Amino acid sequence: MSNFVQLEINERNRWIYFNNYRWVAHVVYWIWVLVVGTILRTKEPVTFFLIFNNFLLANLLIASFFYLYCLYLIPYFFKRNKYFLFWFLVIAGYLSISALDVFYSKAFIKYSDPDPVKSQGFFPDYLNNLGGYLANFLFFSIMLFFMEKNEENNTLLELEKEKKEIEQVKLDFLKTNISPDFLLRSLHQLKESARVPEEHTPEAILTFSDLLRYRLYRGRQAETPLKEELCAFASFIHFTSFNNQLQIVYNQQGEAENKQLAPLALINLLEPFCKVSNEQPVPLEIMLLIEADELLMEMNYAQKATPQLISDLEIYEENYVQLYGNAVKFKFDNHQDDSFNVKLSLPLF
Q1: Which domains does the chain show, CATH number per domain?
Q2: Which tens digit of pLDDT belongs to each residue from 242-268?
Q3: What residue intervals traverse the membrane (predicted)?
Q4: Most exposed: 21, 159, 183, 302, by fewest CB within 10 Å?
Q5: Residue 94 and residue 133 in contact, taking contact as beta carbons nearer than 8 Å
């Protein structure tokens, strides 16, 4: 599997200099070489024979070296951290092709007009090739560098987009992740209430319906109005009073207008406490303070937390930290007096 992944990475690295219309830059580069190096330097009419000899054949070796460099040496050596071998092959290729070009030009290139640079022997021609190759190689490398930066920026944009999509999936999961235990117990409670009609049964059914509607149909938004979340949270507290598992005392301070909050942050925190079965209602004090840019919440549970409750709270912390990072501060612990304390700080937007 790792070999397959590496092959895919190598294949992707090979073609980044041509993907996303970057091949146009190569076309422009060679048109520039054609105009500056051939058309503007000749006094003869521009014919196919002239372009074939003075441009195609004259640049065959240097083009071969350039594309060996960007299609093979960079992806298979430089990007795999084989730096010594990479630079050895680049320098060796540069020196050897410059030398080979001296013999190649004499043997295969037939200029239609006198060669503007007359041969002065192997070493002068070789030194001239080294300078010309180096200048063109530097220009070509600069072009590849900007292509790399463009690919890097595109990759960062793709990663950012994928990150947002992942966060949205997590957010949707949190918004629709109804605890099966809570749902089944709530439905069972409503069923029992329907069998033995009580005064609060219609109200309990309506409250439960409102909670489900808020959770399921709030919309695919990264934030929810704090005022709506608090209303839903108050409804949830009211609903829990019907099953005689918790005796909640709820206090709230602060202004909720024009503030946004992570969706279902409060409801999802209270839900694990509703899963705990108790013979007698357990007091749970909830204190909520709304500040300018954060919401502070403290919960005092009048008995020690069960392992399942702690596990659920750890999952809650993991989910919201993944969504909102270090802006979420969450702490909980059992006290020696058989009580359990939870402290939460959430960012407001």
Answers
A1: 2-169 (no CATH), 177-347 (3.30.565.10)
A2: 766 789 999 999 999 999 988 788 888
A3: 21-40, 46-72, 84-104, 130-147
A4: 21
A5: yes
